[in-house]
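Blinded run. Sample ID left blank on purpose so nobody reads anything into the name before looking at the predicted structure. Input follows.
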Amino acid sequence: MNLKVIALVAAAALSAAALPGTAEARCRGCAVGAGVVGGLALGAIIGSSIANSQPRYVEPAYGPPPVYYAPEYIEGPVCHIERQRFWDGYGWRHRRVEVCD
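Blinded prediction complete.
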C-alpha cells in the first residue's frame, strides 16, 4: 500500500515538474521557488510514509509473564566493577577491579 502511494506521489510530482512555466519577464526565479517547495513537500510525504512503514514489536499474549529477581533475594555476595587509580612508578593509571559486598 505504501509503495503504491509513494509511486503515485512521485509520478504526480514528476509530471508537475515537466510542465512548462509561464513566460513572464518580471518573474525570475518563480519556477525555482515552486520546485523547492514541491521538493520539500514530496520529501515530507515520502519520509513520513517510510517512517510509518517499519514493523513494530508486539509482545505475544501467550505464555507466562517474565519473572524478575530483586538483588536482595539472590544468594551470595553482590559484585560490581569499580575503576581504581594507582601509581605504577611512572604516572597515575586506572584499572578495573571487581568488588564484592
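Unblinding after everyone has recorded impressions. The chain is about 40% helix and 20% strand.
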